[in-house]
Request: fold
Amino acid sequence: MASRLTSWLRTSLKRRPVITNTMVYATFYTAAELSQQTFNKIYSPEKPDIDLVSASRIVAVGSCLYAPTLYYWYKFLDRKFVGTAAKIVATKVVSEQFIMTPVLLAAFYTLLGVLERKEDVFKELREKYWKTLLANQAFWIPGQIINFAFIPSNLRVVYVASASFIWINVLCFIKRQKVVIKTNI
Reply:
């Protein structure tokens, strides 16, 4: 069964890479979001119910934004910077983390604000962007070094989706945090 699934995935990645990567991303986003909600239901004092509508928004934004964007972004990086030498890997990681990542994180919070029908769709972006970006850098710089140095180009989005399971849990945790406004009295 596992070998059939692996064979199907490899074939599908060659024939329909964007659709396949989107499906892989949707699977990991769903698993990560529901695991985060389950964790909160078990361990948080509020014991929130599982929110499938919220999960569907995160899955939609994550899979429809990240998978196709990253597919074409990695193709561009691989054409522009060929090889796995240290300088090439460093260039790809810096490009990924300081060009693409800031845009994707801003789009993530903004699109979710739109889908959540918030009055100020940029409020959460303003409140959580820098914290999210710093957490992202700590997680993804080592992850992208592995990606660009060792992962074959046709498996990059799948690798990133797999590592994203952990990252998405962090992202969903940050997204759910309430912002406490401190006042000086």
